[in-house]
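2024-03-11 09:14:02 DEBUG pipeline.ingest accepted 1 chain
2024-03-11 09:14:02 DEBUG pipeline.ingest length=297
2024-03-11 09:14:03 DEBUG pipeline.predict start
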Amino acid sequence: MPFRGKYYNWKPYTGGGVKPCALNCLAEGYNFYTERAPAVIDGTQCNADSLDICINGECKHVGCDNILGSDAREDRCRVCGGDGSTCDAIEGFFNDSLPRGGYMEVVQIPRGSVHIEVREVAMSKNYIALKSEGDDYYINGAWTIDWPRKFDIAGTAFHYKRPTDEPESLEALGPTSENLIVMVLLQEQNLGIRYKFNVPITRTGSGDSEVGFSWNHQPWSECSATCAGVATNAILYLWLGEQDSWLPSKPTPLLLHGLVSRSAVQAASSFSLETKCIASTVHLDHCRQRNKPIPQV
C-alpha cells in the first residue's frame, strides 16, 4: 500500500511519543515514522520491558504470574511474589582516572544479575562501555562511540542513554546470562560513576555441589501436540534437586503461552518427568524420567 504516493519498506517503531498499542511504522532508510493502524494485534506486548499486552488498542496490565489483571509483582530479585531474600544488593562509586586517558574497569557484573544501573554523577566527555569476560566489547569499544539505543546483550536489554542535558547512563532489568564488565573510556578527569545491581545468592546443597535456580524468559516454541483440537503448551515447575520437595511448596504452574486444559494435565499424571520441568502433553527434550509424582494442579 503506497504512503503519500510512494512505496516504502516498513519496520516497527516503538520509540517515545507514540501510543504503545497503535501500529507505528518507521520507513527504512528514512527519518520518519507514521501510525499505520490505530491498534496492533491483540496480545502484542505494550513495550519490550513489560508483560502488559494490548487488547482492542488499549494496554492491559499482566502480573508477573502471566495472568491478565493480576496484582502479582516481582521483588527486587525479579522473583514473582518473592520477598527479596534470594539476592544481594551491590552498590559502589568509581572515580579513578588515568593521566592520559583510555579504558578503565569500573565493576564486574556477575551472571544472573538484575536491576542493573550505571550512571555518571555529572556530564563529561567520558563514555561508559560494556564488554564480555573475553574482551569483546558490546558498547563503546575500540574507541568508537555508539549511538544511544537499546542493546540486546547477555539475554537482556541494556538501555544506553546519553541525553544532551543529563549524565550518561546504562540500565538493564536482567537477569544476565553471562558475566559482564563495565568499563569507562576516559578522555578527561573522572568525576565519578555510581553503579548498583542485585546478584543471586548461591544456595548450597547437602554435598559439595551447588544448587542455584532462576527463571528466565525464553522465546516461544512450537507446540508438538494438540488437545481437543487446539494446541497445548507446557507447564513448568522449579525443582530444587537437593531437597525432597517442589518449589514453591504449593506449586503454581508457569504458563508459557496460551492455555492448557485440566484434562490434559490429568492425562499427563501417568507420566513421571523431573529435572527442572514437567510437561503436560508437550515433548520437552531436556526433561528426563525419575520416580517423582507430578504435583496436583
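2024-03-11 09:14:41 DEBUG pipeline.report The first strand starts at residue 10 and ends at 12.
2024-03-11 09:14:41 DEBUG pipeline.predict end
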